[in-house]
């Protein structure tokens, strides 16, 4: 197991290196410079600024320098945003996005699993139809539509939650709901399909023949076996939800990272783009690693290394 | 002998997209204490449905439309699902057909075997696991203590079937229903499992309903045999009566299609022509009539009742009616009649 994790960590760095390289050169192919907006700068001034940021060197030298910095955990300083170090910039903006994302994932996953399970248990009844309807709504309503609807009813009309604010837990409720719809719908669909399969399997019939009540059959045997494919989709979805949604963050005025990413691309803020890309990739790879380890915990058939004693 | 289970006039229907399938169309049988009753018949004849109806483990589109299942005189069909939970795995338990898919892949063997004990008895987890270990040893899992924490995928097919049996017997059921427990296994393992069941029956004194389509297996394990066709029983009696003094043309066909030691290598095996009837629209008369070269005109019109052959032997064929014409069964069956006479029976 340890050996496996060490190997995975080695691959993690290899992958990050490849991603950093590709992003770096792709970004250099973007038209324009970070300063193209500053038309008022003279050629002299531009040269000085470029030298200051090391942009006067050849692309290859810039690349080597960047990798050098990366090895020391230095993501460089932002060209925009008050020349803050990128690490600091990401750090500040990340917390709100992660908080809302994590809340949305927890809410979406738990309710998705419940909804899917109930739909499967009550297959082909009105409960199933209702659950399917809800999950399809969750999947197909764009988050900005849901966000605006939530704002209109829960904030503007009934005044339960603030319209758009970022201070306490109260203010995070609406964006959490808006973001939770997608994972909820997705998880519910997967869960239902899998659970219908599991419930018709022989070992569930055997579990029932042992004298288990229907409730125990589901909680002790069906649930765990249905979760395996659900875990697969939760991982990547968690990353995409937790790394922020520009739209939802804009609507609810949340100082999150989604907005930051878009801004840095439109302004050719190389170090910030690089930093965010590498950070996202890092997160995604870590999550996949966790998912793979979780697999083993849920399903003994895919337990790693010396887990099986045969 | 005490009848511990009695099934009367059982009817089971399935709702399908094409209409209602009348899978079981009036089945009567009983099980005596301590005996083994084999139910034989081809695939789709309703063997599994019959025993699942006893435990009420039918699919959700199935309905028991009529009948009684008396367990010690108590009608199980009148009980709620909660009350049935107290009987399943405790008084009546079931051995399933496919060992590869019948065990929960994510639960250790020890826990799976101990589960019925924890459900039905007020025992600690530790005691239940202790007992599970004993039963695993009893069914012949080597080194059970070490293997309690293993998962199903770490066992072979034969071992898994032993584990499935261990689950069924762990709470010493009065009735053990074995639904083709050897079908998925190769022949040598099959023989081991049959021996194991016989041995267990002596040790724990359980009664067994054994479902199979393999007549060779029946001869090895059963006291009595019931032959099933298209949702009804057509003949039942002791093993010797059904094997050596069969009366129903369907039983003749089944027995005649079995290779014997005299069958020459080049000879074609006999088979019953045609296919079973579609139970969406069951025939009015004898369901076997269209495939039966001995069929009488009345077979098309009216279902034959059971005619008594001996105190223990009954067959549902009009050929046994006093007015029926005399027919000569196939040569293979006549040989069986001779053997029956040697055994001291009075063959017709």
UniProtKB/TrEMBL annotation, chain A:
State if Metal-binding is listed as a keyword: no
Protein location: Cell membrane
Lineage, top-rank taxon, reads Bacteria
The protein's topology relative to the membrane is: Multi-pass membrane protein
Q: Which residue positions does the secretion signal occupy?
A: none
GO BP annotations listed: transmembrane transport
GO CC terms in record: plasma membrane
Q: Which residues cross the membrane?
A: 9-27, 100-121, 133-153, 173-191, 226-248, 278-298
Indicate whether Heme appears among the record's keywords.
Answer: no
Looking up NCBIfam families in the UniProt record yields: Opp3B (NF045471)
Q: Which family does it belong to?
A: Belongs to the binding-protein-dependent transport system permease family.
Recorded protein name is Uncharacterized protein
From TrEMBL, chain B:
Q: Which residues cross the membrane?
A: none
Q: Which Pfam families match?
A: ABC_tran, oligo_HPY
Where is this protein chiefly located?
membrane
Q: Which residues belong to any copy of the ABC transporter domain?
A: 5-255
Q: How does it sit in the membrane?
A: Peripheral membrane protein
Q: Which GO terms describe its biological process?
A: peptide transport
Q: Which UniProt keywords apply?
A: ATP-binding, Cell membrane, Membrane, Nucleotide-binding, Transport
- Where found? Cell membrane
Q: Which family does it belong to?
A: Belongs to the ABC transporter superfamily.
What protein name is recorded for this chain? ABC transporter ATP-binding protein
Instruction: State the species of origin.
Output: Companilactobacillus futsaii
